[in-house]
Design brief:
Blueprint lengths: L11 H11 L9 H22 L3 H16 L3 H8 L1 H8 L21 E3 L1 E3 L10 E9 L10 E6 L19 E5 L5 E7 L4 E2 L5 H9 L4 E2 L2 E7 L6 E7 L18 E2 L5 E3 L2 E2 L4
Parallel strand pairs: 1-5, 2-6, 3-12, 3-13, 10-11
Antiparallel strand pairs: 3-6, 4-5, 4-9, 7-8, 9-10
Helix pairs in contact: 1-4
The structure holds 3-methylcatechol (MBD) and fe (iii) ion (FE).
The site of fe (iii) ion (FE) has 5 residues, from strand 9.
């Protein structure tokens, strides 16, 4: 059983802040009218919550202290990706017709070891977990294979930990990429990940515990699939019947994203929208 509390999850949320700081981002030009509209509505929504619940000064101070702690714990990327990103993804990807996306989360790292067509994710000798062969193809919206697509896969280990975020795991453990050949196909050999628990020792976990929520995400595979002249898709895939598939704390499960492996093997195709 791997779904217990892990003291060693400490630091995963904090480490996500360092990773975010290195992330390449497009320049978001300051559009004063848009900042005015968005900031005004965001603050207005908060004002309404305060009126609705008749907040006390003690509660206002507790809110301030908690916000300060989220930053001190380095957990803003973790907190935002768990509780906010799913709506951004919904809005941004509303018009897609091809492969269904969902949130990226805080634990993507670019530049994982790359294979042609078929490969085994880097893993430790005797890496715990049931074997999993994950295969499929990258196509256009008509099902024509795309050559030279990049399929990046990263996931937690059998204890729910991500390399480069939890301590003591080899750098690229359970992270890899495949460049497709002319048939557009990819085949990864890996292990079945475990459900993921939001770290209990930081500000995000403190809110979850104080509110009486649970801290679990269902077991998932993270993917980014990209190709020239195609919209890249960032998504996650889940396992039918898995714990918390029906109550993901990050609200990132969609019916199109549920895998049904047979004999430790599963196929999933990515039709990519044109850019
Ligand atoms: C994860 O593994 C994850 O995928 C998300 C979205 C948030 C926290 C941890
Ligand atoms: Fe994850």
């Amino acid at each position: 059983m791997s779904t217990t509390t892990h003291a060693t999850a400490a630091g995963s949320g904090r480490n996500a802040t360092a990773t975010f700081a290195r992330k390449e981002r497009g320049t978001a030009a300051v559009d004063t009218a848009r900042v005015d509209a968005v900031a005004r509505d965001a603050l207005g929504a908060l004002h309404e919550v305060i009126r609705k619940h008749r907040l006390t000064y003690a509660e206002y101070d507790a809110l301030k202290a908690w916000l300060i702690r989220v930053g001190a714990d380095g957990e803003w990327p973790l907190f935002l990706d768990v509780f906010v990103e799913h709506v951004v993804e919904e809005v941004v990807n509303a018009d897609r017709r091809g492969a269904v996306g969902t949130i990226e989360g805080p634990y993507y790292v670019p530049g994982a070891p790359e294979f042609a067509s078929e490969g085994t994710l880097p893993m430790r000798a005797g890496e715990p977990g049931a074997p999993l062969t994950f295969q499929g193809s990258v196509t256009d919206l008509d099902g024509i294979p795309i050559e030279g697509a990049l399929v990046e896969l990263w996931h937690a280990d059998d204890a729910g930990f991500y390399s480069q975020f939890a301590p003591g795991i080899p750098e690229w453990n359970l992270r890899g990429a495949i460049r497709t050949g002319a048939d557009g196909r990819y085949t990864f050999h890996t292990i079945q990940p475990a459900p993921y628990q939001i770290p209990t020792d930081g500000a995000t976990g403190a809110l979850i515990a104080s509110a009486g929520w649970h801290a679990w995400r269902p077991a998932h595979l993270h993917l980014k699939v990209s190709a020239p002249e195609r919209l890249p898709v960032t998504t996650q895939l889940y396992f039918e019947g898995g714990e918390h598939v029906g109550d993901d704390v990050a609200q990132a499960v969609k019916p199109e994203l549920i895998l049904r492996p047979v004999d430790n093997r599963v196929t999933y195709d990515f039709p990519l929208d044109p850019a």
